[in-house]
Amino acid sequence: MGAPVLSTGRSLTVVALKDRYRNSMFYTIRHLTKFRYNAPITESVMETRMHPRSDGNQRCLTFHLSVSPRCRVFSYRDHLGNNIHHFDIPGLHSQLVIVAESLVDVQPSPMTEPLLSFDSWEELDAMVMAGDYWEFLLPSEYAQPTGLLLEWRKTLGISRREDPLTLLHEINEKLYAQFEYVPQSTRVDSPIDEALRSKKGVCQDFAHVMIALVRSLQIPCRYVSGYLYHRNQDQDRSAEGATHAWVEALLPHMGWVGFDPTNRLLAGERHIRTAIGRDYADVPPTRGIFRGKTASELSVAVRVAPSEVPPPLDRELPIPEDWSILVERAQEPTAPLLPVSAIAIQQQQ
Length: 349
Known about the structure:
- The protein has 349 residues and is α+β, with helices and mostly antiparallel strands.
- The chain has 2 domains: 4-107 and 283-329, Immunoglobulin-like (Sandwich); 120-267, Roll (C8orf32 fold).
- Helix content is 20%, strand content 35%.
- β8, α5 (192-198) and β9 form a beta-alpha-beta unit.
- The protein is globular.
- The protein starts with a strand and ends in a 20-residue tail after the last helix.
């Protein structure tokens, strides 16, 4: 493993953090990605979206990216405020390993929601007309208003009734009740019609179906990529040890509100956001190409550990003894061996 090549964040003492973030929950996140090639390749060009955002109820206190083989990593922010890192490895190599480590502070979510009236539809329309939300209203690559989607919407009786918040809760409930969570049931590029026909999918499919349905009601809706901390008492359906996806919808008096249809949840202090976009095509954790005629194999492992107090920031996170085993088990079925000269590299749950 190469030496760490990127580190960001301020060095705050534990005492100062305790005082400043008295009601916070802290999460340490390790996201490991490994690409293996059957024969050495001559170059890898890669970009990653693994740096947690600092907005809303969360703050990324530290972020550390390690790459092997060693290389120089560059970073920038896109127009939506996502943190993107990119690098080029021009020499021969037979594997590429990326480890992203983060310390994130998440504030508790409000205990109560404001009541919205039927008139809030007019308020929402006024917000849309006054703001720049069109990219979250128009169809996108994986969130299309297909005939199957509109037929399903009609079957459910989904229309602009009650108020926007009540309707979004209903959609969240319907998706959870009528769709089965089945890992490996879809591909990274599956259209929503596959999930609509089979009534099963992974978190990415739940998010895309909900986004397309909500946008058809003229409610701005966006895709959120990140992590979910799993607790035994919650009985989440989504897989532990992987990235997660949910949606955010724009509501009057509330702003962007997160809904997790995979687990029938409102996004809260267990949800850690890394990137937002129109759909998955905008925010894959890794995306890139390599030069060479060989097959590739992708392994991914994620570990989220909570703490009521922040760990020391001047010390590297300890690597668990079973981490290598966890990586070996995290084979990514949606990235099969492909004999190509250049392949787009992506991840999904």
